[in-house]
Design goal:
By secondary structure, this protein is α+β, with helices and mostly antiparallel strands. The protein folds into three domains: 13-49; 52-120, no CATH class; 149-319, DNA integrity scanning protein, DisA, N-terminal domain (YojJ-like (1, 3-Layer(aba) Sandwich), CATH 3.40.1700.10. The chain has helices at residues 2-9, 18-49, 52-73, 77-97, 100-111, 113-120, 122-133, 136-142, 149-171, 187-191, 202-209, 249-259, 289-300, 311-319; strands spanning 176-180, 194-198, 219-223, 226-232, 264-268, 275-279, 282-284. The chain has a seven-stranded mixed sheet with strand order 2-4-3-1-5-6-7, sandwiched between helices. The longest helix is centred in the first third of the chain and has 32 residues, at 18-49.
Length: 326
Amino acid sequence: MSGVCRLLKQSPGSVPGGCNIQSKEKKVSRPYMSTSHDIKYAFFSIISTLGFRDIVDILILAYIIYLLIKLIRETRAGQLVKGILLLVAGYFISSFMQLTVIKYILAKTLDIGLIACLILFQPELRRALEKFGSTKLGTRLFGIGQSSDDVKQRWHEAIEVICDSCVELSASCTGALIVIERQVRLGEQIESGTIMNAIPSKETFGNIFYPKTPLHDGAVIMRDGIIHAAACYLPRPQSDLGIDKNLGSRHRAAIGMSENSDAVIIVVSEETGQISIAMNGVLTRDYTREKLKTLLEAEIFDDGTEVLPTAGKRFISSLFGKGDKK
């Protein structure tokens, strides 16, 4: 009886098998609870020690990473980044599987990865830096592009002339290509043409783009409200993918120029007389005189007081979705 009483007094956990199950449950649950508690404690410890400078630092870093991802996604650099990530993944897999030769080759490849990235991404990096320098922040920091009252007045008059000229050229189906220079200087393109420094007028544009004249085969570049140069050659697009095959050389040159600068490029088709605008690698069509004037004033003037570009706004807006190059 005493033995039976002793068995009854024992807890269920002491019964053979029961003790083991309970101990296993305790061994499993305690480390999980301890790890969860440690994570929560570490998280709240970090949050409690964050200061104003730390928050600003994190926000700036997150915004830069966001812009880089958007920039890479919208250019051919995206495929290159995928290749680099595959190399990095291959390096870790070879290290885990102890593949000595593959690991050595990938390690040597990644050693020169920084220099290779600078070479491969040179066009994208140049374009990104040019766009950053052409924003309002870059303009106001370095005092670039501040305009006098004379320049503002010239631009007001030039916009009217440009709109009237484009309408007349469109009516006669005369091809035209007009580049409005903003913060990014177009010295290379200007050197390929003929310097004019002429006051814009309908007659001047008509003579320049009249077929079979010496200056009609090329682009007019406007700087500070005057016709600075004519018969200028513009760069080709970085890629012909996504561009309508029906577009001619003028439209392709306009897209290429807009990809390499913050300029506003106006195109008049000699086949249809259609007026188009190219900005930031995106071509938009079917502009009337009113729509053209509204866009030019919005892009050239800021609140009607300063001739400052809105390339920063266009760059940010273009990051939220690809435009149609058709």
